[in-house]
Amino acid sequence: MVERVYIFKRFERFWHWAQAALIMFLLLTGFEIHGTYSNFGFERAVEFHTIAAWSLVGLWTFAVFWHLTTGEWKQYIPTTQRVTEMVRFYAFGIFKGEAHPFKQTVLSKHNPLQRLAYLGVLLVMNPLIWTSGWFLLFYGSWASWGFPNLSLELVATAHVIGAFMILLFLIVHVYLTTTGHTPLAHIKAMITGWEEKH
């Protein structure tokens, strides 16, 4: 028997996919700026990267407002309850066909591991990438900000480390979307809003 539950609201889905597209574009242009490959050309890559970064800031501003006004921010409160079961499931149980130890509901959309991962994004990855990006964007203002001796190489390295952390998170995130009852079930839910419970 299949039960359909409306989990993801329209704005959540829009925010999720818009954020994903902007982050992938930032990675694409960012690694070109870094010199990994050539596609747009350095100047245009910098221009596109800056536009995408400001677009993401605007999107996050709306998302923070939406989460605060709807109470959805509570979905991200970290917990260590049942973390061991989640780790065991993803390490072993999933390959043995065991049942998922977490039941997703409208009031609890993210499992304990997801909540901890999102906490890592909010406390480590985002501050690293945004602080270093801000400093790179306003390189000419460092002296007036009181950082005349700040190393450009150090700031750029921090930004690249943050980018690799986000890329790793993205890869793991995409992989975990394939662990539903079918490989595309979770992706379908993030498109339609409806999660199918078997």
Overview in brief:
The protein has 198 residues and is mainly α.
Detailed description of the structure:
This protein has 198 residues and is mainly alpha-helical. The protein has one domain. The protein has seven helices and two strands, in the order E-H-H-H-H-H-H-H-E. It has helices at 10-33, 42-70, 83-91, 112-137, 142-145, 152-177, 185-192; strands spanning 3-6, 194-197. Helix 1 (10-33) runs antiparallel to helix 2 and helix 4 (112-137) runs antiparallel to helix 6 (152-177). It is elongated. The N and C termini lie close together (6 Å). The mean pLDDT is 94.
Keywords:
198 residues; mainly alpha; two-stranded antiparallel ribbon; 7 helices; 2 strands; 64% helix; elongated
Reported for the largest beta sheet, the result is: 2 strands, antiparallel
| Global morphology | elongated
Q: Provide the domain count.
A: 1
* Uncertain runs: none
The number of helices is 7
